[in-house]
# Entry
Amino acid sequence: MGAGIAIAEHLLASKNRHLEAYQRRLDAVKQYMLMRQVDKSMQKRVLGWFNYVWEVKQFSDEQTDLEILPPILRLSIAKISFQDTFQRVKLFRGCEPQALEELIMRLQLQFYCPGDLVFRKGDVAREMYIVRSGLLQAVSEDGLDVYATLSQGSVFGEVSLLSGLIKADQKRTNTVRSQSYSELFTLSKSDFQEVLENFPLAKQAVVARSRPNRTDPGEESPEANKSPLEVRLDTLETKAPTLISEMGQTLAAMIRETNELKQQLARLEYLDKFEPKAWDLQPSLAEFSE
# Structure
């Protein structure tokens, strides 16, 4: 019992510290924007981001929190979080586990607000992205046409890592826009190439997978050489973003319907408690006898 109370007190004190830190930073940013005469729309975006960070993360810095751990434990946590995702990327299939571990440890976290552009069509491609949370869309240059929806676990931009290995620097073919508050892990081209230099077998596998389809007569296409498991993984990788998006829409609809039902029940309870009932309005026999 005493241990439980001590844990609860510790959690409450920790939350209070985070709240105080959040309030200090928020006040400082508000004062800065006031002094710099930042326009109202930008102030709204900044305050919206602060609210998001507080609601989702309680203003804690996970990367800083994990720095207290020894490298072996940090690597173990990272492997649990990302190894499956990396193995689903066609480019990394066949890479040595040690190479994947090195790549995972070089991931960097970035944040995007609703409406932010991750990159534009025509930008030089220098990194790949893994969606940790949030919802993004691959859109046309004018933003009107939506080509794909990206959600948790989606990987995009991985072809950019090949620049310098087998071809010149590539440019983005689409614009990617964040539809919500999004957290993305990025892997830079320089970190990717540095890791491959230390793992020749992984480099060989990556270059082989990145070669264009062979067209020489008498040779089978790479698709024909894929195992049934690889074919299924390719199909799942193609359909997963759409399925996740549909599941998110269904969940949102269920939440709306649940909230509406709760409001209706609350109204019925209110009417039952405060509205006079029909039998309360009928005169009693004693009143008629008078």
Notes: Residues 21 and 59 are 8 Å apart (CA to CA). The chain is about 55% helix and 15% strand.
